[in-house]
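User: Is it possible to get a 3D structure for a protein together with its bound compound? The compound here is magnesium ion. I've pasted both below.
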Amino acid sequence: MKQFVKTFVLGIGEAFWPRRQLSGSTQIVPQSSVSGRALTAVISIMSFLACLTAGVVYMVNQSADAWYNDIASEVTVQVTPGEGLDMDKQVALVTSILQRQVGISQVRPLSLAESSALLEPWLGANNSLLGLPIPRLIAIEIDRNQPPDLSRVRQNLAARFQDKVLLDDHRHWQSQIRSLTRSVALAGIGILILVATATISVIVSAARSAMASNHEIVEVLHFVGAQRKFIASEFERHFLALGIRSGLLGALSAGLVFFFAPYAIQMLGGGSVTASEIKQLVGSAQLDFFGYSLLGLIVVAVAGICMFTSSYWVDRILNTEGTIANPNYSPRKRFGVSSRQAGRRANGMMSPNGSFAKGVGVVLKSTFLLFLAFALGFVIYASSIDRNGARSVVQADGIVVLTGGKSRINKALKLLAAGKAKRLLISGVHAQTSVGQLARLFPGAKPLFNCCIDLGRAAKDTIGNAHETRSWARQKGFGSLIVVTSSYHMPRAIAEFRTVMPDTELKAYGIASSNVDMDQWWSDSATLRLLFSEYLKYIPAITKLGFSKVGNLLAG
Amino acid sequence: MIRFENVSMLYNRGPEVLRNVNFHLPPGSFHFLTGASGAGKTTLLRLLFMSLFPNDGNIFLFQKNLALVPPEERAALRRRIGIVFQDFRLLDHMTTWENVALPLRVQGRRESDYKEDVTELLKWVGLGNRIHAYPHILSGGEKQRAAIARAVIGKPELLLADEPTGNVDPRMARRLLRLFIELNHLGTSVVIATHDHDLVKQYNAPRLVLADGSLQVRA
Ligand SMILES: Nc1ncnc2c1ncn2[C@@H]1O[C@H](COP(=O)(O)OP(=O)(O)OP(=O)(O)O)[C@@H](O)[C@H]1O
Ligand SMILES: [Mg+2]
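Assistant: Yes, that's possible. Here is the predicted structure of the complex:
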């Protein structure tokens, strides 16, 4: 402990007064061998990048939180006009009731002018409107420390004013904003992890090669009787100083960037990007106190990594000493004392070149593994696709069929006729196609078209199908759906639907297509091409589903 | 003091440098270690200060089996040994004086305690005017003398010298030999690896002769 404190104090001293020497004699480990320009530059640059990433992620998260808080703490109450009601009085009454409510920090009735200003986009600026009965709004701000029971408030108001006073807490928007902000946060954390990994590995390998060049010193020191602790502290001190200095350099540069970013954006952006737009996107674009402390934290981490890497390599050199001549030999192991040394078997010192080659090797290997996983994934994907289509179907609230083949709609109509569901949505119908035209294509189903079939014309792709289906299911109040599409398209369709409608029960009804030969997909080039392009689209779909699931999970 | 029991040693997949070597050196003894170039003299010395470990057999030093000494205790053991490397191994960024003082410095001793001793020793080995020079400007013989000074400054119990007179003239060789003999009289065991026959003849001490991987002791 004492040793550690000493190393620490000396290291910090050296970081700020590099040339000063505490005693008159030469340093045992020359400082210049550790803090060369290239090494300082590399570590500074990596610290700079890490600080920049951390700062941006922090700011985006901050403003995402701010969006959410803004929308969550804002509630409006709508007072609807009625026969013989004095609106001003009514508004005053509701206001006073709300003011008495615990947990509401501010109640602000909007004036008549303000309320009509909100309607202007729909009704136009017309003075004649003033005579019309316009609903009046009351904005409420909630005390987030002790939020009121909003559903109770809503019920009380509705009961007392016979549904003429409605409370809207933007619940629907809240959940959407929440999942959006969660995704943004997750993506940020992912990027941060990548940058942190890169930073750590660069620093570790830089420190390692600096240690390799000092191999001789470590050995001679040990031969003349220096203890491990002594040698390690000599190096740790220099590396701590190196880490502090380059870390600070990086963090200060990043800090400057953050400090001047708003002005720079204003200057460069000209008319196209206004400061307020930037502000909405990334908050103030300036770090607050906590943000700047985050940069400080990174400096500490960088210094720590430098220090511990050097300490680790002193150990490595000392523990492999003597075994270099016999890589397979370990004295302690031979006597059954410890097998610990077997793991530290000498490969000798790793030269800087060797570690670079190793890095390249790691990249190549992981690329290869990724490729392998990709190829294997395709085989699994292709062979797991349902060959014959579904045979039995259970009951559901609604059926949705995705256009793209006459047989799909035919099957869906049969399901509907068999009474498997109440209504059918044909999603992705061409904008110019009419019900009549469609009905003529399927002569037997004319009565069905008259009673129970809806056409969706908005969707242009699978994602569009999903959104269209969601609004349809919402509108009809359906909680379970049978999804009808080609077998090869089914995995992606289900993934997209799940992402958009996590709470709706989905039942797949796949249809075998005549133009794809699923039994021998590997031998037919047309099938292969189709499946491969599906697979390429399936990967982002399933990834999106995964992210949204994690997001929902985190959102509780 | 030193005991070898059935020690065999080979480098990687090379031939056996030492084969089944057995010998015992009592404390306070003085030995020359001779043998042709490549016979394994340096190897044997490296085994003694734990820079190498044998493939087979046991080495005892100061009553300890070296294979069982944990790495963190090697430093303490080495403080009792003085080593002169055949290739000197001086640190290039330190002056002669600092190189010689290194063993004391790493023990945490205060500079004022040994300042005089180091300077005096350097004068004795003829480096009085080379105190502030850095190794890369020293001649071969001067480096050698600095390495010897570093080995003996800590008054070790065992001195291992690998070819300590290879780069100096006969007069200086005799002077250095005197230094070793004097140390031996003060209680230090000495092992000097050399193929300098003149040196061996000047002092009547037993010889360890290495040939074809085996070792013989000749009085
Ligand atoms: N690190 C090593 N790796 C492989 N072989 C080695 C290594 N060191 C020495 N050898 C070999 O071991 C044998 C003995 O070498 P060693 O240095 O002990 O000889 P030596 O008696 O000291 O010779 P010299 O009188 O020339 O110094 C030689 O054949 C040498 O090539
Ligand atoms: Mg030799």
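Residues A 325; B 11-12, 14, 17, 35, 37-43, 86 surround adenosine-5'-triphosphate (ligand 1) (CB under 6 Å). The radius of gyration of chain A is 34 Å.
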